[in-house]
């Protein structure tokens, strides 16, 4: 299946003028078993973005190059926004039915008695008129009016408390957690090779490969569902293998950001990335309720519609312009013969990976304070993963259907959208213009308090005994949506210009590693909490709160270098 992947690129900033997309961050979106959201904040260690940044800093484009960039810019921006919207729409639409089908398959295996049809009761000489049942165009059989509904491929959905028992929900959480871990590997493994290929083949072919792998991954998962009578559900883990074709959603997002960096000047990228984030959140708000509404009729309808949309996204790649040629100058390695045609491709790849690792290691040793601050971002990523458990958590704790839960969760997306579009820009303006804070001091101050908000929001959700308190917790949690983006912006501001690519690559790699750990860990905490019962059901959010406490503590311990402290907040 596809996923929450998600490489997100952060542009560099200087200390006086922000050029990093500060508000390009969103919470980690809810993911299906393996379908990872195409979130603009999910960064991976991408070589392609580093190359784009290096080109922007190192070479001064000639007038013809500037003209070409200006010519391609509107088309690339519009198509990128459209592609993010439809991919996130497809992935988000598939989340409720995938969770419902997986829960049903597990429940049928653990509690087969629940799925036994009720005895028929004959009513002789009944005067009640027969109510015709209109079958779904996709389903084999639909039994309306009862708890059991049969669909194509042997899929049976049942509304029974037995399916919310700890054994069923714990196994479901385990499957989803490990699926997320397996789906992180293609982005980690493919970052360097596909980054190199994007310079050799172009951005568009690599992005097309990533979307092809995504479609194959989703299609394989559907086949496992269809043949669930004979194929174990854990086979869905192998769907991540298809994402090795193109690197999955992580590389797709990397290519999008790289293409935008190719044609958009650095002083305008913040605005474009901001628009991308708004489109992403808007698509999320639509996708969940839409998938939940379709699920009421037939779970296969949203799944097949999502697959059709993903296929459409593959076709959209054909109309994307290639942007790799907008850079006029040759790279130094090419000018010096470092990338001669007689050198094997594998040798070039190994050399590039080795040089990159050596550069990262040297950077860490020479910038220990920045590396310490980077740990805050890692723990923030660990805490944000809990968002992927929200849908399952809500259905289990409050007895909601998957459809109802998906609609309630739009509170978080709406809150994130309001925070990023209105609240943070206003607060940022007040800090800089009214309070006279330096840009980096403002970022650190807002990141600290966003961390506090995340801690309170996580613990509120954990303690929520009813749906009303849960909704309040969701809204409060959303107020901290800008935390990761502000930490990333701060990291970019604290390093030298020539280290921007290195720090973003390192951020991406650490985020990916964090996600591989967070999946099984928080899934296990949900399973343990369900078994313990009572207030311990909220254990995943208690765990997330602890991660946010560590992240926030690091932020409060961190001190800005002399010369960058704000007179308004000397302790920074």
From TrEMBL:
Lineage of the organism: Eukaryota, Fungi, Dikarya, Ascomycota, Pezizomycotina
Gene Ontology terms, MF aspect: transmembrane transporter activity
Keyword Membrane: yes
Protein name: Major facilitator superfamily domain-containing protein
Ranges of compositional bias, category Basic and acidic residues: 8-19
Domain of life: Eukaryota
Keyword field contains NAD: no
Membrane topology reported for the UniProt record: Multi-pass membrane protein
SUPFAM superfamilies listed in its UniProt record: MFS general substrate transporter
Keywords from the UniProt entry: Membrane, Transmembrane, Transmembrane helix
Residues covered by region (Disordered): 1-42
Residues covered by the Major facilitator superfamily (MFS) profile domain: 138-563
Entries under Pfam families matching the protein: MFS_1 (PF07690)
A GO CC term attached to the entry: membrane
Annotated transmembrane regions: 76-95, 177-197, 209-228, 234-260, 272-297, 303-321, 370-394, 414-432, 444-464, 470-491, 503-523, 535-558
Biased composition (Low complexity): 20-42
Subcellular localization, as worded in the UniProt entry: Membrane
């Amino acid at each position: 299946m596809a996923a929450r992947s998600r490489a997100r690129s952060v542009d560099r900033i200087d200390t006086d003028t922000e050029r990093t997309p500060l508000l390009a961050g969103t919470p980690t979106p809810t993911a299906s078993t393996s379908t990872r959201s195409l979130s603009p904040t999910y960064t991976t260690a991408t070589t392609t973005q580093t190359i784009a940044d290096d080109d922007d800093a190192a070479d001064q484009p000639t007038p013809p190059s500037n003209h070409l960039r200006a010519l391609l810019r509107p088309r690339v921006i519009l198509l990128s926004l459209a592609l993010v919207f439809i991919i996130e729409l497809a992935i988000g639409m598939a989340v409720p039915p995938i969770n419902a089908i997986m829960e049903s398959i597990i429940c049928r295996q653990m509690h087969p008695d629940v799925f036994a049809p009720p005895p028929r009761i004959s009513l002789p000489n009944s005067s009640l008129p027969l109510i015709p049942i209109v079958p779904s165009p996709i389903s084999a059989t639909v039994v309306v009016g009862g708890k059991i509904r049969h669909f194509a491929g042997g899929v049976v959905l049942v509304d029974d408390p037995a399916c919310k028992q700890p054994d069923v929900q714990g196994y479901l959480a385990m499957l989803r957690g490990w699926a997320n871990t397996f789906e992180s590997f293609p982005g980690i493994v493919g970052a360097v090779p596909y980054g190199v290929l994007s310079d050799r083949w172009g951005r568009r072919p690599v992005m097309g490969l990533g979307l092809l792998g995504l479609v194959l991954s989703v299609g394989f998962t559907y086949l496992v569902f269809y043949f669930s009578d004979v194929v174990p559900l854990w086979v869905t883990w192998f769907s991540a293998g298809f994402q090795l074709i193109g690197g999955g959603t992580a590389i797709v997002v990397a290519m999008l950001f790289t293409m935008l960096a190719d044609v958009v000047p650095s002083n305008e990228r913040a605005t474009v990335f901001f628009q991308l984030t708004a489109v992403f959140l808007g698509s999320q708000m639509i996708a969940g309720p839409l998938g939940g509404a379709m699920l009421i009729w037939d779970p296969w309808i949203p799944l097949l519609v999502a697959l059709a949309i993903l296929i459409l996204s593959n076709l959209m790649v054909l109309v994307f312009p290639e942007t790799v040629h907008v850079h006029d100058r040759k790279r130094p390695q090419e000018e010096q013969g470092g990338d001669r045609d007689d050198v094997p491709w594998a040798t070039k790849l190994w050399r590039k990976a080795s040089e990159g690792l050596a550069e990262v290691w040297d950077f860490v040793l020479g910038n220990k304070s920045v590396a310490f601050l980077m740990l805050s971002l890692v723990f923030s990523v660990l805490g944000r993963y809990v968002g992927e458990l929200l849908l399952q958590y809500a259905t289990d704790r409050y007895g909601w259907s998957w459809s109802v839960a998906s609609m309630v969760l739009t509170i978080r997306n709406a809150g994130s959208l309001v925070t990023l579009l209105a609240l943070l820009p206003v607060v940022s303006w007040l800090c800089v213009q009214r309070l006279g804070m330096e840009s980096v001091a403002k970022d650190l101050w807002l990141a600290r308090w966003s961390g506090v908000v995340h801690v309170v929001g996580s613990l509120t959700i954990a303690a929520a005994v009813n749906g009303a308190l849960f909704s309040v917790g969701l809204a409060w949690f959303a107020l901290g949506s800008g935390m990761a983006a502000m930490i990333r912006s701060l990291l970019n501001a604290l390093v030298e210009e020539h280290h921007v690519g290195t720090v973003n690559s390192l951020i991406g790699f650490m985020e990916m590693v964090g996600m591989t750990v967070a999946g099984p860990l928080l899934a296990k905490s949900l399973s343990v909490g369900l078994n313990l019962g009572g207030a311990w059901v909220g254990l995943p959010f208690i765990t997330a709160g602890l991660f946010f406490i560590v992240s926030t503590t690091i932020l409060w311990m961190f001190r800005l270098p002399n010369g960058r402290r704000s007179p308004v907040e000397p302790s920074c």
